[in-house]
Amino acid sequence: MQTTAIASTTSMLRVMNERAVFAETFRRGAVSRPELAQHTGLSKPTVAGALANLERAGLLRQVGLRAGAAGRSAVLYEVRPEAGWVFAVDVGRSYVRVALADLVGRIAARKDEPSRSLRARDLVAQLTGLAEELAESAGIRRDDITLAVFGTPGIHDKATGTLHLAPNLPGWNRRGSVERLAGIAGRTYVVENDIDLAAVGEATYGLGRGVRHFVYVSVGTGTGMGIIIDGKLYRGFRGAAGEIGYLPVGEDDPLAGEPAARRRGLFESVASADGVVAMARRLGLTGVNTAKDVFDAARAGDALARRAVAREVDHLSHALAGITAVLDPELVVLGGGVGSQPGDLLTAPVAERLRDLVALRPPRIEVSTLGTDAVLLGALAVGLNDARDLVLQSAAAAG
């Protein structure tokens, strides 16, 4: 028994050392053994053993030499990109966006197409076909994908396998429905809230880089918020943090009594794209079918459209005032079809209104630079981080 315990401890140390060497190699790119020893704090023999094991497992590869002192050259190592693959998916009511990336984050294939979200089985068939198409384009099989990350509206209840609070995805609130995603790509998958992923995308690739406390607020087909606190995604007790569609904003609005307000939440009913159009029509504006139509008309000087946009500014300002009072973010990143409107109509008026609603200095408000790719990029960021652990675990299990 004592021998077994010693062997187990030795194996654990070996895995921890390999994880440290692998992570540092990924962070630094092409790197030598002496550099790895210096930056990990491990001895050169330990680093050499970890490099040999990782290279044998197909996770690292030699990529050349770097000249050193006294004419000596050091072998350089880098992460082998083909050691793992991530399939990232953004599932929306209107579009699905998918991408396939290797282990170092290079996108090998990408495609966007109209979503077949009205029926769950049609959406699963669509995503399966897209996974097959992208895998073939990258020269791999679907089963070679290490991890699939699905960004969806609503909250994934792992106990029942359902999506809650996702009215735009009919059928996914049935017990076990999420399990349909298991056969789409590879053997392992995760389901994340789409707006949470957008916040991760902003933190990794967008305006949130280097910002410890910020929120990503999406106003479009629906409304939602991703929260980054101290550099980490905050999910809440049930994973429902950021469901701002249910904020009690808009009680005095004529849309408050609509059935959608009970189903989708009051703020979402009055502030989403459908709410903007409904308000404009109630005010007497004709010939508008989308929120973009309303904003375009307001920019052109239409008085009724400007009144509708002013109501949107009021709704969004009051929501952000509550968010600011509770979370005190440094930055608010606006996304979604409505939230991404140019600053002259939305961002600037909201910022000005906030100064009257919030006692302390309000946060910066900026429109996302990632646009419609925010969710997909967040899915890639989450997937790449998890996939590196998975390939290490697989290598350790294989000895």
Automatic annotation (TrEMBL):
Q: Name one Pfam family in it.
A: HTH_IclR
**Domain named HTH iclR-type: residues:** 29-63
Domain of life, source organism: Bacteria
What the record says about family reads: Belongs to the ROK (NagC/XylR) family.
Protein name per UniProt: ROK family protein
The protein's organism comes out as: Dactylosporangium darangshiense
